[in-house]
Amino acid sequence: MSEETPAGHRLGLRENWWQFSIFTAITLLIGMTIGVERVALPPLARHAFGITSVLYTVSFISAFGAVKSVMNLVAGRLSDRRGRKGILLVGWAFAVPYALVIIFATAWWQVIVANLFLGVNQALTWTMSVTAKIDLVGPTNRGLAVGVDESAGYIGVGLGGFAAGLLVASYGLRPTPYLLAIGVVVLGALITVGPAKETLPFAHSESAAQAARSAPAQTDRVEAPAGCHAPAPRLRRLAAYMSWHDRSMLAVCQAGLINKFADSLVAAFFPLYLVRQGVSLVEVGLLVGVYAWVWGLGQVAAGALADRVGRKLPITAGTFLIAGGLALFVATSAHGAWFAGAALMGVGMALAYPNLITVVGDTADPAWRGGALGVYRLWRDGGYALGPLVLGGIAVAGGITAAIWAGVALVGASGVVLLVWLRETDPKRRRQPPAWQDHPEWVAP
Questions:
Q1: Measuring CA to CA, which residue among 352, 273, 363 is closest to residue 314?
Q2: What is the pTM of this model?
Q3: CB within 8 A of 432, min separation 6: which ones?
Q4: Distance of alpha carbon 428 from alpha carbon 418, whole angstroms
Q5: Which of 27, 216, 217, 381 sits CB 3.0–4.6 Å from 152 for a disulfide?
Q6: Chain centroid, CA 440 distance in Å
């Protein structure tokens, strides 16, 4: 089912399949860029720089998360004014110094600096890619669109990590994996400059169409050029609306934050915990792989499910499944239970992760959707900045097992908040309009 806006743009997955496919390919390349790091960088700390401290080793994740969270906000806000394509291209440019700095680094602090560039790259590129897809499909099949985006990205993470692993085994930790990253970046930039089109006019047209439906008497005025659209609220107002005025959005933002706490546990703490339990590195890689593969491949189905049953059920159930999967790792020493826990976490991530983004897309006016997504992603990727530090401090004080149990408690509490505060936002099923429509002063320009 498609929708034609007053400005003549046809919204829908089928109507825009070519551009949607282009942006999906771009997302896969974005994922490959970070996938190289996840495999090639952690061993570099010990083998090239002699780093043995857990907190110092995982500091690159915090540096990455801090910059990415802030730049998500900047990118989303700018994209509502300047468009998606130009910011996407700038994001690709920041990945080049990231790779070059690591290739020539002589100290670990330089690697941390390189991750600041990677944080900017991932914020600008991935935020713009998912926003472009939401622009193209409109309100119908929005969940599926976000599911495809996130699935493509995490499949890219897996492909990049696999390719980097082969290169490390054959040619060493530097420079070959990062030459691969540069090649991926160049390809992504060429696709962005070439066949990818600007999608901001689609968002403006959708905003005009919504205005026409809500005020039929003003239809003639709505049928204006695509540039005539609702002004975006100031950033401070938008951040306040997303962060506390609308409890439903607050529930989504905290869920995104805690989601990254859980992912930080898998990326930084699970390998250490499992090795201390006598698990081989091969089995550690397989356990982490099960989690990532189930998560990545499951997001398409999870997005489609949210279009059929609504957003709240998959998100809330998925959050509780993440907590259950984490608990299985520390509640038992049976390897079979660990694999079940990894798969359970993957299912939970697949259900919650893309649909949290979809909820923001449902709620925000298309004219300021990019900024709203930026605020949400500020919260979400702030979990990468805070998670390793908070959980690392707990691990230093009480051990890695205590840190994982703390993660179980945090994720479980996040699920309770979602259960109580999150309202259904699917346009076909919502019983109440978004809070900003009842309180327009919250998002006034």
A1: 352
A2: 0.80
A3: 423
A4: 20
A5: 27
A6: 28
Domains of the chain, by residue range, sit at 1-229, 233-445
Q: Tokens 């997001």 identify what position?
A: 299
What's the CATH code, domain 233-445?
1.20.1250.20
Closest Cα partner for 230 from 4, 443, 1, 3?
Answer: 443
Cα 185 from Cα 191, distance rounded (Å)? 10
Least confident of 3-7, 275-279, 433-437: 3-7
The fold of 1-229 is Growth Hormone; Chain: A; (1.20.1250)
Residue 288: Cβ within 10 Å count: 18
Helices (H), 227-280: 235-240, 247-264, 270-276
In this predicted structure, what is the pLDDT of residue 214? 62
C-alpha distances out from residue 189 to 115, 120, 153, 226, Å:
20, 15, 16, 27
Under 8 Å CB-to-CB from 334, ≥6 apart: which residues?
none
For 82-106, write each residue's pLDDT tens digit: 899 999 999 999 999 999 999 999 9
Structure confidence at residue 216 as a pLDDT band (50, 70, 90): low
CB atoms within 10 A of CB 281: 10
Report in angstroms the alpha-carbon separations of 370 from 180, 317, 357, 393, 398: 31, 27, 11, 34, 41
| Alpha helix (H) residue ranges in 310-368 | 312-331, 335-363
> What's the pLDDT score for residue 237?
92
Cα–Cα dist 433/360, whole Å: 13
Spell out the residues 6+ positions from residue 416 whose beta carbon is closer than 8 angstroms to its own.
none
Lowest mean pLDDT among 182-191, 223-232, 243-252, 301-310: 223-232
More confident residue, 356 or 272: 356
